[in-house]
Structure formats: structure tokens, C-alpha cells
């Protein structure tokens, strides 16, 4: 179980590093899902990236849910403000809200997944 927790934390840090890269790189270097980059697709990318982060982060630190929830918001706000120093990036409140919604959805889905997992496999 300890090895699984370490791998989960490494996956969380790796995903966070990817998000930092995608958020703070120039627009021309930013990874995208498709070539036609509409506002809806970009919002979906943001939402999903932070949902995965919230999911992984909550599972990697299950005994500190408040800290995780606050940390997710802190990461989002911090990265959004860091975009002020990157040429051709424009931090916006709507971006922050999309990311926060995604992060918290992932956070809460991890609770549900853990409950289902425990019930299916009778683990407490």
C-alpha cells in the first residue's frame, strides 16, 4: 500500500508539473487537444486538467481534505497571477472559475470513487 501511495503522489506531482508548464508557457508552446482551438474547447481542457489534479491530489493526501481543497484553489490562483509575467498570456477571472470548478469536481469525485471502491471490495 505504501508503494501505491508513493506512485500516486508522483503522478500528482507529474500532473501538476504538466499544468504549470501548460499554464506558464507561451501560447505557441501550449499543448492542446485539437487544432481548432475554440473558447469552449479551451474551457473544457482547463476544466478536465484541474479535475484530474483535484482527483489525484485528494487521493494522494486522503487524510487532509480541507488542506487539499484550499491548496487546489491556491495553486489555481497562484498560477493565474503568474501569467501576468508571461508574454502573450492573459489571466482572467473566468479562467480561474473554470479551473476551480474542475479542481473541486475532481476532488469530490475522488470521494465518491473511494466510497464505491470500499463498498465493492468491502474495505472498511
Task: Offer a few descriptive terms.
single chain; mainly alpha; 4 helices
End-to-end C-alpha gap:
15 Å
Major beta sheet, specifics?
none
Number of strands: 0
**Beta-strand content:** under 5%
Low-confidence stretches: none
Report Rg.
Answer: 16 Å
Instruction: Please state the overall shape, judged from the principal axes of the Cα atoms.
Output: elongated
Helicity level: over 70%
Q: What is the count of helical runs?
A: 4
Order of helices and strands: HHHH
Overall pLDDT confidence: 90
What structural category characterises the helix and strand content? mainly alpha
The number of domains is 1
Write a brief caption for the model:
By secondary structure, the protein is mainly α. The chain has helices at residues 2-24, 39-60, 65-82, 93-121.
Question: What does it look like?
Answer:
With 124 residues, the protein is mostly helical. It has one domain. It contains four helices and no strands. The chain has helices at residues 2-24, 39-60, 65-82, 93-121. Helix 1 packs antiparallel against helix 2 (39-60), helix 2 runs antiparallel to helix 3 (65-82) and helix 3 runs antiparallel to helix 4 (93-121). The longest helix is centred in the C-terminal third of the chain and has 29 residues, at 93-121.
List the topology elements.
Layout: H1 2-24, H2 39-60, H3 65-82, H4 93-121
